[in-house]
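Exercise 4. Each item below gives a protein and its sequence. For each, produce the structure-token representation.

Item: Tetratricopeptide repeat protein (Streptomyces bobili).
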Amino acid sequence: MGAVRILLPVPRTLARAHVGLGGPLLGAALLRCLTPGLFLVWQRPPERLLAWSEEAVAVYRTLHEGPRRRSGDGLALALVLYANALYAAGRYEEALAASDESRAVVGARMSPTQSAYALRVRTLLLTETGRLDEALTVARQCVAAYRVTEPRGREKSLGSYADALRIQAWVLDRMGRVHESVNLYMECAELLRALPMWRVLLRAGRVKVRMLCEVTGGLRALGRFEEAVSAGNDALWWSTGMNPSYYPDLVWLHAQLFTDLAWCYAATGDLRRARDSADQAVAKCRTLVEQDAVTGLPRLVLALESRTALYGRSPVPSADPLPSAAVPPQVEQPGPQQLADLQELSELCARLAVTDPVVYEPRLAQTLDELAFCHGLLGADRQAVEAADRSVALLRRAADRDPRGYEPELARTLANLVIRRSRAEMREDAVAPAREALAITRRLAETDESLPPFLTVQRLELLAWSLRRTGDDTQALACYAEAETLQHELMAAEPEHSEGRVTAVLTGYADTLRATADAHLAAGRFDDAAAALRRLLALDGRTDLPEVRAACLGAFADAHDMAANEIRGAWQAATTDPFPSIDDSGGAG
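Answer:
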């Protein structure tokens, strides 16, 4: 091929002088350059492939449209190679048009391998343009075509049966049919494993590396993390020595691979390797962005998401954190790197959301929620509120587009906003999002059986807490009473429900009753104080929690100290029973 490429000016000159004589020679030379021979050690630059294929199409179109209408075979093949070059350049719609034109060439008779290659290129283009059902049909035709043909000579560079299987698996993965996809990848791996080493190195190396990178992602999606790590390490071994200058897609494959490995190592408990992989993924993606920002920025978003999660807490907490709870000991304080990554990630998502809000507004909302969490840990409460407000606004838009998909996340983020505002002493402003989070959760609980039933209890507790901080103890007590009833119903139906949630609800309930009784005593409302004390005593009677007993003892001790005679009278007027006393054993009598 090197000699042909060097001598291309000769047939070009002949074609200019007389296309009828020099045209076929030039066309054949260009097709020879576009279909390399034995040693597939490098991939030609897309710009050169595009220039050669454009020239070949122009030559064969001129010949085919002449009076003798010859060279239909050459025009059909040149159009397929042109479509492949356009695909490599990311110009998918133009490439699909070239593929359509190739299929429509009258009288074209390509060889079986060339026909299979045309199906291969068309599968890739249909997939990239979102026509996945058509792509799968063509992919199956492509696999069948390669299964019955044995490429010879230069046609060995036009794909293989193993590569066709890999492409069909890739289409299935894009369709969300991950199990089928992984099974096909495994079949492809068996075919490649049976090849002699020299054939893999000379011809199938790129196919094997791509297959291993792609199956790593599929295994990760299935939760088969150990297998994914093994496949990913094999991909790195096989790609050792490959020069990115000769393989332009190698950096892209490694960016995807290191991102998948980061999550897989984290899932297997190897946090050091997980963070190393995340660092390498970010570095590879930055290189991609320098080469092509359009394709590189989405990959950088995925890599940064993995690194921010691995250097901090999980981006999506499993439950609403309670405002009064201390930071769990396993949560690391955010460092400068994590904050910088979150800030960069939010800026990238905001930039991409301008043109693709459906995908990137929810991602931006999640990043801002994580950023708010980090600001909260560092005591920057106002910044935490600002980030949480933006997160809620973005999720409102996402929930308007897809209520079923994003209302649960909106409710969770609203609950987080309650905490952010409360810690920033915006107590009055914390009640509205708490009510909204509860309302959404109630509505979802009626229609979505997969929703954790304890969420309603948590959101009731959160609303009660926020109401209590505004001095509205009456509504807070109503929330606690409902939360207690719901939690006991859950535990009766499913005994495995956590006792800890009952403890949290009843402790808050008892503390609120004590605070209510004290407030009524201080204001001289002795009948109301006696009513609150009666509810507290009844609560203590139906539970054996020491936290509730302590609140009860404290409330009655306060009543004895603040207005013993008045509260006794109010108690006896309401119940005809004597006012309980505090005995020597520390119990309420």
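Check: DSSP finds 25 helices and no strands in the chain.
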